[in-house]
Amino acid sequence: MPKDYGIGASSKRREDVRFLTGRGQYTDDLSIHGQAHAVMVRSNVAHGKIVSIDTSAAAAMPGVLAVFTGEDFKDVGGNPAGWLIKSRNGEPMREPKRPVLAHGKVRHVGDAYAAVIAETYEQAKAAAQQIADDAVIDELPAIIDMKAAAADASNRVHDEIPDNICFDWGWIEDNRAAVDAVFKSAPHITTLELVNNRLVPNAMEPRASIGEYFPGTGDYKLTTTSQNPHLTRLLVAAFVMGIPENKLTVVAPDVGGGFGSKIYHYGEEALVLAAAKKLGRAVRWTAERSESFLSDAHGRDHVTKIELACEKDGTFLAFRTETYANVGAYLSNFSTATPTFLHGTLMAGPYKVPHVYVNVKTIFTNTAPVDAYRGAGRPEATFSLERVIDKMCRELGLDQFEVRRKNFITPDMFPYTTPVGLAYDTGNYQATLAKAIEMADVAGFDKRAAASKAKGRLRGMGLSTWIEACGIAPSHLVGVLGSRVGLYDAATVRVNATGNISVMVGAHSHGQGHETVFPQIVAERLGVPESSVEIVHGDTSKIPFGMGSYGSRSLAVCGVAMNKAIDKIVAKGKKIAAHMLEASEGDITFEDGKFSVAGTDKAKTFGEIAFSAYVPHNYPLETLEPGLEETAFYDPANFTYPAGAYICEVELDPDTGKVDVVAFHCADDFGNIMNPMIVEGQVHGGVGQGIGQALLENTTYDENGQLLTGSFMDYAMPRASDVPFYNVDYSCQTPCTHNPLGVKGCGEAGAIGSPPAVVNAVIDALHRGGMTHVTHINMPVSPGRVWQAING
Amino acid sequence: MQLSDSRDIKAAPLAVWQAILNPDVLKECIPGCESLTGSVADGFEAAVVQKVGPVKARFTGVVTFSDIIEGKSLTISGEGKGGPAGFAKGGAKVALEPIPEGTRLTYEVDASVGGKIAQLGSRIIDGFAKKLADDFFARFQQTVEGPAPEEVVEVTSDEGEPAEEETKKGWFKRLIGG
What is the residue range of the signal peptide feature (chain B) (predicted)? Predict the structure, then answer.
């Protein structure tokens, strides 16, 4: 029987009660006495010289309290990039200043160059329009195409960067010659040029920020839609505004989805703080959906050429890739890590390929900044690998399953060091592949294909065997790779006098279900009901300094920090029990919520210990402190490496090119599972986003840099009817070897593993239908593109 | 976005040429034009109301003429700011050549939009622009040629206001003494 509480139980998500009944408290729900409204003035052109911004008419309009332009922030710091990447020639990346408001030039449609604060939103909006009408911005030619941008020194996104290249990175540069040599003598080479399409994150809740300033104390408060309030505080305090950290509280209350886009610090956050100080009033800003499309950090946007060198029997010899990665107009906080260390280091996949070389050129363009979006770099790596492998199998007439099996790292080879610098601690790729084949009833495929054919439709099956590095943390590793911050996490477990427990965590929950899962672990470890454990997150004045939630790290990093804090609680509880039971500390055991003297029936319940900790009338004060509260910081030894096998089946209408995903099977290895229901939900969401990328979503800028897909009318999000009911399995478990919970993380897996499975299935359907001339279709594989591929 | 087409107009090239440079004619022919003032030398100030898909806006801007080869060809350029809707700008190269029936007017339009119109209306902007150009040149043709007799009859019977017939009929021809 499945467990009904604690680790491994499918406890219902307690946060859903408030989310589903409209009782969530999002940033925009807050109403603060005396608040004023901010509206940003955003550029309508992709690239332009700011000649003048005449704000006088706007400033005189009804209700207008203040107007800001880039000039007001020219002396404060820029919003920095979190990772310093070096080019192949050893030079550090080019790092232009990213100001709070554009100054001198506007660099993408939606780039904010002024802001209005007014009594009401409508007044602010009207005055913002007045500024837009009065500003003189000379449009310059837009820089949109990456390769053209790199080739043309005469037109520059940033005047000081001559070729629009941020860096030209080689991974691992020392291996380049050896990889090239393999390609010179390889019996077979498969080459594929592909595009990893640009995506708009489209969190359900748009970004919003409220700044407050308290003149009595000089304290600031920022309430904002953030996945990591401490990181935002650090960036605002230390880099941009120069506010002492202890004078700035950052609160990220309920946040309606992030998918990466809310990791980063954005200029609006600094703006509302500066405005609040100037006016002595709370200043609020909430993005319109159009602003989200224009100014949230986008995802993906790679143009890649990948080559696979192999034996005629499909044994991999080497992978070589050249990628152009779009960073947009400015460097967002993680934008330099995403196409490099979250991408290049994964280019060996789960395979024992001896040689890999990755070249990534990141290019500035007059488009919105591009940064990590669910999966971040790993979907790009997986898509390139799994697509080129599929193409190779077709070229050589090899079985796709057999080729994977032949090249997988085998379970006896762990820990396994890849040629791209990672050390996989554990895994069993054969097991997840076998499971997926069983789940998908691969043996019965021909029968299903025949049934589809009878309906006039083509059926195809696509495979993707993916791996990721997540639990984004190890400070020593990310430090070597260029990160300017350490990436540990922290938790405080506070046992209250009456025995209930508050856990303050550095991770932030914006849909993941931390408020449910973390108490399951506490309940299991301390033998208390889940309902007596409360998770506190998102408020820097309450929680220890943690690095937030992204990179499937919450459980594998912060959850383990919490587990460490629980260890300390148990140790402290034993001390208290030893005192109360007049026994030696070494004789106390803790089991099922009871502290006992080994070999006797003398025991104290957890609740009695907790109460005693706060009513310590007779404690030996030199050896036993009152209270029962412990904090732990945890910095893991390595990334975690979830992996799995996905099989997608599609039906394709050859007359219209329409693709329907009719079945999707996921066999994942996430290590130990804390809450199966939540794991399934994460996989569903991730695969849904992956199908969205594969079939529907695309971000299009025209040659002038105008965003043509600026609303849900033109940007196709997946709907319920676009996805099948997923078949999810997580029974293949190789627990992570370097964290005590044995967990790996599951948040991004679906978005990483699924796009190549979908596209491989489409190509398979076309080949089975005799259209073997189609070797690749770029995502999104829309009906139009399929029809064109079919009809040449 | 680019589009090109040609129209045969039953009027002499000189009459067509004068019509193109006449602000009253342009005001009559530009769909949604509220006002148009100025001169060929200094450019025209124009205000035009348009609805592109979900975005309705009043564009104000300047229309200028360049590359003028008297009686033969010219380039009309315009840029309009549409407030919250964004902007539209573009140009039309217009060339006239005499044909037995009158004048062949050839045009190549190159237009672009920015801001909200681009974000919300991109799906329909090409079709919209084509329709706009078609409307303009159809009205232009009608203005220069004067309405066909049967159309006048139709208008008369529909509206029941025969007094309008006189004003509709080739007012531009009368204006330029044609």
Answer: none
